[in-house]
Amino acid sequence: MNITRKNQIIFYAFSFLIGFYLANGTTVLFEQALNFSYSQIFTLGAVYMLMFILFNVPAGALADIIGRKKTLIVGSFLLVAAALTTGISNNFVQVFFSFFIWSCGFSFIIGADQALLYDATKDDTDYAKGWGKASFFALIGTAAAGIIGPILYSQYFRYPYIFSSLPFFAAAVVIMFFKEERKERTFSWQNYKTKTITGVKYALKNRHVLWATGILALTFGAMYTFTNSYQPYLTGVGFSVKAFSIILPVMFTIQAAGGAIAGKLYEKIGDMKIFVLAVIGIALSLIALGELNLKISLVFLFLFNFLLGIINPITSTYTNRYISGDLRATIVSVQMMMSTIAAALMLFLFGFLTDKVGLHYLLIILGAMVFVGGVTLLMFKPKE
């Protein structure tokens, strides 16, 4: 086995373990068990997104200086601490402060993982396939967590968070064996400051990166808003919590399948057709979910996740095409920071609206926003 193949296997294993987040499918239920209102749940989710602003760009710049692998190791250990801290929390304030550790841990991983893989592949098509497969394995991990998490929750509502620390610890150990080929760089605060400022300026000036940021903000905002909604949505249309052990694995496996074919679609039809089909399909799926109050709406939930699985690797590929290697993690982190701001604004808005208009109307409004925003972005896509 050559080193490239070894790196691929290690990276896919790391992706699986980070995706094997046992509490992912019961987060809202955990908060409801602590007697959080819908308003508190959405507000906490929105503030959690804003927490990333503190860590996204500094973590990305650090990854570009000390190495992406080291940053991924630190991020994984932070997730171990986050899982345990949330798991033993008893009230809103404690959960709130534990979320700072979550946002710091994920910030160390988001951006650094894409940069590590792109530098290892050095080719758009290979990266699209590689990131699609990494997304596939991450979502397979999430699907497996979707089976085990609800079972653990039914035993004791704290177990999914507490036991999530185990795969995160394993991820830190696994990624240590990845061979990162890069020049050694000595850390200095001046270099760190320069790297951060340069990366932010580039991300805000490059029209291709800005456009991809708009697509990412739209899809990530819709995804994260719906992540805070689908658990009560499913129970509202008649599914039991036990049924989540079947629904969630299927949902994440379908999203993983979208990621798995994304690279091949990119190679055959290019990114523009994928962006058009995915953005419009996501918008219409959300509207259909809002219109229907029947179990058959599960079809549109699966379609929504399938399209997310396709568009995420393509957006990442499009972005990385226009980024220089020494700033890659910083710029991707800036992009994620702007996306989290958009997600936070959506959550603040819908947290206010949900208790007043209901969850189904929220999904219709969300779908309409994605449709209008998506069509506008597609009309003004920069020329190559």
For the structure shown, list the relevant keywords.
about 375 residues; Growth Hormone, Chain: A; mainly alpha
Q: How would you describe this structure to a colleague?
A:
This protein has 384 residues and is mainly α. The chain has one domain (3-175, 198-379): Growth Hormone, Chain: A. The chain is built from 15 helices and no strands. It has helices at residues 3-19, 27-33, 38-66, 68-87, 92-109, 112-121, 124-155, 159-175, 189-205, 207-227, 230-236, 244-291, 298-320, 328-357, 359-379. Helix 6 packs across helix 14. The longest helix has 48 residues, at 244-291. The radius of gyration is 20 Å and the shape is globular. The mean pLDDT is 86.
Find the count of extended strands (DSSP E, 2+ residues): 0
Main beta sheet: strand number and arrangement? none
Q: What is the multimeric organization of the chains shown?
A: single chain
Order of helices and strands: HHHHHHHHHHHHHHH
- The helix/strand class is mainly alpha
Remind me, CATH topology?
A: Growth Hormone, Chain: A
- CATH superfamily assignment? MFS general substrate transporter like domains
Can you tell me the residue ranges where pLDDT is under 50 for at least 5 consecutive residues? none
What share of the residues lie within helices? over 70%
Explain the layout of strands and helices.
Layout: H1 3-19, H2 27-33, H3 38-66, H4 68-87, H5 92-109, H6 112-121, H7 124-155, H8 159-175, H9 189-205, H10 207-227, H11 230-236, H12 244-291, H13 298-320, H14 328-357, H15 359-379
